[in-house]
Amino acid sequence: ARPLLMDCDTGIDDALALLYLCLTPGTDLRAVTTVAGNTGAERSALNTLQVLETVGRTDIPVAAGAETALTGAVHDEVSTVHGEGGLGGVALPPPTAAPDPRSAVELIVETARAAGGTLDILATAPLTNLALALRAEPRLPELVHHVTVMGGAVHHPGNISPVAEANIGHDPEAAAAVLAADWDLTLVPLDVTMRENLTEEQRQRLLASDSPAGRLAGEILDCYFTFHETTCLPFRGCACHDPLAAAIAVGEVVPRLAPRLPVTVDTADGAARGALVADTRGIHRGYPELPGAGATVVLETDGTFGELLVERLTRSGQE
Ligand code: BDR
Ligand code: CA
């Protein structure tokens, strides 16, 4: 398998993605970097270390990165979505491993160089670290094999504004830079992540499992389910944003529909700030490739990922 670096803001669904990757045979998670988003970057790093320890992966370096967006803006407190501390208010023992002394940018650039063009990157958070890494190493696109980003809303409403999704909308300038860079990039927007769900019945199976990963997932999901049930889903459950992007990044979920579309981000001040602008005007002609900077935009998956995720997290304890 190609080496993988995950940049995240752990976060309940980031935690599910980390557990999924660690429990998916053949996945080579080399490093994790964290950024402010669901909670602060440093807190996300501690959360990540705790999650990795649940599956015995204290060997993976975890480096904290940007605490603000490129503009210096601090993200609003989003503890209502991900709970106190970012993991649903669940108290976990302090991690035995410490964060890596390098910065997130250093870890991204060094991991890419060491992998000699084979590194895949999965970003499930605001794109600040990746934008800063591009500034620090303009050759980064040549050093990276593929980038998968959970973010944006194409035909679906936004989740932090009527049109902006959190990972793009919390740092629009960073997202614009990352989307404009010359690398192969796949976007996994709300259009698909809101339709791959977990249900309360599945959460109960996670809680009842004899896998530490399954039980941790079941516990942290309680708060996430309450958020979804009271805001954006017609049932008690949740969307699978970050784990779906992880499964697409490692090739386990193959999208049904993923055209290559010109994409950009609205960075102007105003009602559409942070919106992903994807050119879907070819929709009735099977999305012929249009000129302009492009990303592969996932518009349809088969809706069965939640069950795959539950099976993966309940199957085994350590690795
Ligand atoms: C994205 O925002 C965060 O709250 C989630 O972790 C996910 O990465 C969904 O918009
Ligand atoms: Ca996230």
UniProtKB/TrEMBL annotation:
GO biological process entries: purine nucleoside catabolic process
Domain Inosine/uridine-preferring nucleoside hydrolase: 5-283
Domain of life of the organism encoding this protein: Bacteria
GO cellular component: cytosol
One Gene Ontology MF term: purine nucleosidase activity
Keywords: Glycosidase, Hydrolase
Protein name from the UniProt record: Inosine/uridine-preferring nucleoside hydrolase domain-containing protein
